[in-house]
Design goal:
The strands form three sheets. This protein has an eight-stranded parallel beta sheet with strand order 5-4-3-2-1-8-7-6. Helix 8 packs parallel to helix 9. The protein has eleven helices and 16 strands. The mean pLDDT is 96. It is 27% helix and 21% strand. With 399 residues, the protein is of the alpha/beta class.
């Protein structure tokens, strides 16, 4: 079987996760309905009347993703509250075309992605709080789920993949994944199938047809490919919540997010970073600035992250990855040069590359400065005052 689509997914490297739905209007997280039983279903189901999405939300999202250095976007087509951002074609009227927006938001998303050169991925819930048959008649519910996913596979052209979530809610149930996954491959043979195994099953292969395992809010690791090629992806949110939350101030630092991105690439995993749009579909300004900072770092370092893979070469004070042409030494916590009245001096750090071959043609990616190599070692050049970007990358060859 041709698994080249797996490699293409791995080469994307970095994507944005977008949790967007009715809960975005409330601004208290994507589990708002479940976490607030006093807000009954009747009240929550009135939210579609307030769901007015900005006309250019999708184009703005794609523009931000490109500036952030993301190559794909995974958007919630339907989350656990059961509300769909797409036209469910008569399955129910709890969808975006029947909201105050009166539009198929997934079509707008896919069109914007295709126009902007971003690969569209679809998140879809398995767990459903809205559908009574999820608890009453599970087989009937699975037919509804099947038809819902079939719409996504047939109405929007080629997609990058489907990202399922909620299997962990009923791990012992017969989800009929054979039927669901085979249908996906029938209509979208190169679509990645991802099924999130949750917080407690990091990297677990839940089904032979799963194309990528997940590491939700965890630490990525080398993926088991003993039976077939398979990718890995870590998902993490920029703060504590996945959906937009007005009073969540626990933003992760840019340096921490960069570190996570680098760890993922060192393990040959993708990094899926989540931000939550407001109820009108726009990205909060603070989250946008974080994304732009990440994109600036990626651009300054010549986009090396996309095609790199782990390798057998090791180093002291650096991690080594490679692509088809070069090796790269990733050095973290690089200090900034400054007057002693501004910052404490830091001892020089030496990187030693463990190889019987000779290191040559070494240079920093961010400024193209040549690196002086002596016996496969070099002293790390600090950032000049006025620049402090956490990590530096040295490109080199071995002869």
């Amino acid at each position: 079987m041709d698994y080249s689509y797996i490699k293409r997914f791995q080469d994307l490297g970095f994507g944005l996760f977008i949790h967007f739905g009715l809960y975005s209007i409330v601004g208290k997280g994507e589990w708002y309905f479940f976490a607030n039983p006093k807000s009954n279903e009747k009240d929550y189901c009135q939210l579609p009347k307030k769901f007015i999405v900005h006309p250019n939300w999708a184009k703005q999202l794609v523009a931000i993703a490109k500036k952030a250095g993301a190559k794909y976007i995974c958007l919630t087509t339907r989350h656990h509250d059961g509300f769909s951002l797409y036209d469910t074609c008569g399955l129910n009227d709890y969808d975006a075309p029947h909201s105050a927006s009166h539009r198929d938001l997934i079509k707008e998303f896919v069109d914007a992605c295709n126009e902007g050169g971003i690969v569209p991925f679809f998140y879809h819930t398995l767990l459903d709080w809205y559908q009574p048959n999820y608890e009453r008649d599970f087989n009937c519910y699975l037919d509804y789920l099947y038809k819902s996913v079939e719409i996504l596979c047939t109405k929007y052209g080629k997609i990058g993949g489907l990202w399922f979530d909620g299997y962990w809610n009923k791990p012992s149930a017969d989800w009929k994944f054979d039927r669901l996954y085979q249908m996906i491959k029938k209509y979208q043979p190169e679509a990645m199938i991802v099924n999130n195994t949750g917080l407690d099953a990091q990297g677990k292969v839940s089904h032979t047809l799963v194309d990528s395992v997940t590491f939700e809010r965890g630490k990525p690791n080398i993926v088991d490919n003993s039976d077939r090629p398979r990718a890995g992806e870590m998902c993490e949110s920029i703060n504590d919540h996945w959906g937009y939350t007005k009073k969540d101030y626990t933003y992760k630092s840019v340096s921490r997010l960069l570190d996570t991105l680098l760890i993922c690439r060192e393990c040959n995993c993708n990094f899926l970073l989540n931000v939550g749009p407001k109820g009108n579909g726009t990205i909060p300004p603070v989250e946008k600035q974080f994304l732009l900072a990440i994109g600036d770092w990626i651009k300054r370092n010549k986009n090396f992250i996309y095609h790199v893979r782990p390798c057998d070469v090791t180093a002291i004070n650096a991690t080594i990855v490679k692509d088809e042409n070069h090796y790269y030494a990733i050095i973290r916590d690089v200090p900034m040069q400054a007057n002693e009245s501004v910052a404490k001096s830091v001892a020089e750090r030496t990187v030693a590359i463990n190889s019987e071959k000779k290191v040559k043609h070494a240079k920093y990616l961010d400024n193209a400065h040549r690196v002086k190599i002596i016996n496969n070692q070099f002293t790390v050049e600090s950032f000049k005052y006025g620049i402090s970007q956490y990590a530096r990358v040295v490109q080199f060859d071995l002869e």
